[in-house]
Write a structure and sequence with these properties.
- The protein is about 35% helix and about 20% strand.
- By secondary structure, it is α+β, with helices and mostly antiparallel strands.
- The chain folds into 3 domains: about 5-120, Roll (Chitinase A, domain 3); about 130-235, Chitinase A, domain 3 (Roll); about 240-375, Serine Threonine Protein Phosphatase 5, Tetratricopeptide repeat, CATH 1.25.40.10.
- Strands 1, 2, 3, 4, 5, 6 and 7 form a 7-stranded antiparallel β-sheet that branches. The chain has a 6-stranded antiparallel β-sheet with strand order 8-9-12-13-10-11, covered by helices on one side.
- The longest helix is centred in the last third of the chain and has 46 residues, at about 370-415.
């Protein structure tokens, strides 16, 4: 096939000749990792480098300026299995400096390249390939959405090449769950630029997990694909850019969001919102006078609300800790003691929980709920004591039985004096070492009393 000019300026800077056609229609995506074999030569045929000679394919991220310009441009046009020859002018290779000693300045180079395979860019938190991006249309600028940014996207979800959703949606990043956006899409959007369109391959752990999505005919533990376009986004307000009153205003808005999510039973989203309130207020030392009082009041109610959310989601250690933070701000807070008592009860520590419920009664003696919880604690403590008593009794019985078995085993190991050689007359046991008499031979277990060897009592 004749060489084709693929240089951006169409000035012959990169000529591509296909030596072997590839398969399929897909091309590698900017940002993806490509795997190739190559052989580099000068125009006179002198070879200066070859991955084949090393028997080691070469991998690089396409379009990231990890290689010479000709490669980023030329390899992006290759299909899997394709072999092509790229003739690269100096401005698309090593330019005026060259790469001494093998490549002199202003040298035109030829590369025979075989496209072996490619994969997308790994956006997963653990870098385990569970969120893979294959870019279709690059975005513009260098800014990407952050947590709480308002994003406007179009997404198309596919399972086994069947489309299960196709829609426009707008939401605040971090709250996608509220509008049915899976975690993998949200995580990927943190790396998108405005106008970008990419294919996402998402493993089940960041998709619909073990529950699946029956209404979309998606079974448990299924991997899915999305094509996502980030149409636009608005940056979230940054805490550092606000003064004290503005921070409190933003914290109030987030707290109200959290409360609305809580009322809707969306506890995980409520927790996210309450944590953001803490981020705005907890570490700021600049609040004074009235602002300080407002900040402390917000922090107190936020810790209490977090504790309630944690109790609802069976995160009892976190609930306990949230209550303890609330008590640092208000050491006589009735709700904090009560909810911490509930957390301790759930953690099977009634003997600690009862102390918190007793503190509630010190603050409010008519608190009926706390009184009932104390009864529950006492009943649990009694059950625990009875269980422990039985456990120890069984344990001691077991030890006694083991001791008895050990003693019996030791007795069995002792020799039987009525059997074997003991009590029988051996040659060395008879006085004087004399031979056994006929009577002794017939009655080997009878001890003869002729200890002095005189012959007395023989044959008795």
């Amino acid at each position: 096939m004749a060489a084709v000019d693929i240089s951006p300026a169409k000035n012959g800077g990169i000529l591509k000749e296909i030596l072997k056609e590839g398969v399929g229609d897909e091309l590698p995506i900017t940002g993806g990792k490509v795997t190739v074999h190559y052989t580099g030569t000068l125009l006179d045929g002198t070879k200066f480098d070859s991955s084949r000679d090393r028997n080691e394919p070469f991998k690089f991220n396409l379009g990231m300026s990890n290689v010479i310009k000709a490669w980023d441009i030329g390899v992006a046009t290759m299909k899997k299995g394709e072999i092509a020859m790229l003739t690269c002018a100096p401005e698309y290779a090593y330019g005026e400096t060259g790469s001494p000693p093998k490549i002199q300045p202003n040298t035109t180079l030829k590369f025979e390249i075989e496209m072996i395979d490619w994969s997308g860019e790994d956006l997963s938190p653990d870098k385990d390939g569970s969120i893979e991006r294959l870019q279709i249309t690059p975005g513009k600028d260098y800014v990407t959405p952050r947590d709480r940014s308002l994003v406007n996207i179009h997404l198309t979800g596919m399972y086994k090449d069947e489309v299960f959703e196709d829609r426009d949606v707008q939401f605040c990043l971090g709250e996608g769950e509220d509008v049915g956006i899976i975690k993998g899409v949200e995580k990927a959007l943190e790396s998108f630029k405005s106008g970008e369109k990419s294919k996402l391959k998402i493993k089940s752990k960041y998709a619909f997990k073990k529950e699946g999505k029956p209404e979309f005919n998606i079974p448990p533990n299924a991997d899915v694909e999305y094509i996502v376009e980030l149409k636009s986004f608005e940056k979230a307000v940054e805490s550092w850019s606000l003064n004290g009153s503005q921070k409190i205003e933003q914290a109030e808005l987030l707290k109200d969001k959290g409360t609305n999510y809580f009322k809707a039973g969306k506890y995980n989203l409520a927790i996210k919102m309450y944590k953001k309130v803490l981020d705005f207020l907890r570490y700021d030392k600049n609040f004074e006078n009235e602002l300080k009082a407002e900040s402390d009041s917000l922090l107190l109610s936020t810790h209490l609300n977090l504790a309630l959310c944690y109790l609802k989601t069976d995160q009892n250690v976190e609930a306990k800790d949230a209550c303890s933070e609330a008590l640092k701000l208000d050491p006589r807070n009735e709700k904090a003691y009560f909810r911490r008592g509930q957390a301790y009860l759930a953690l099977a520590s009634p003997e600690i929980a009862i102390k918190d419920f007793e503190e509630v009664l010190k603050i409010e003696p008519k608190n009926v709920a706390a009184s009932k919880q104390i009864i529950v604690c006492n009943n649990l403590i009694k059950k625990q004591l009875a269980k422990e008593k039985k456990l120890y009794a069984n344990m001691f019985d077991k030890f006694a039985q083991e001791d008895k078995q050990k003693e019996e085993e030791e007795l069995r190991q002792q020799p039987d004096v009525m059997r074997g050689a003991l009590g029988e007359w051996g040659q060395e046991e008879r006085p004087g070492g004399r031979d056994a008499t006929a009577f002794e031979k017939e009655n080997p277990n009878i001890l003869m009393l002729n200890a002095n060897g005189t012959g007395e009592f023989q044959n008795m």
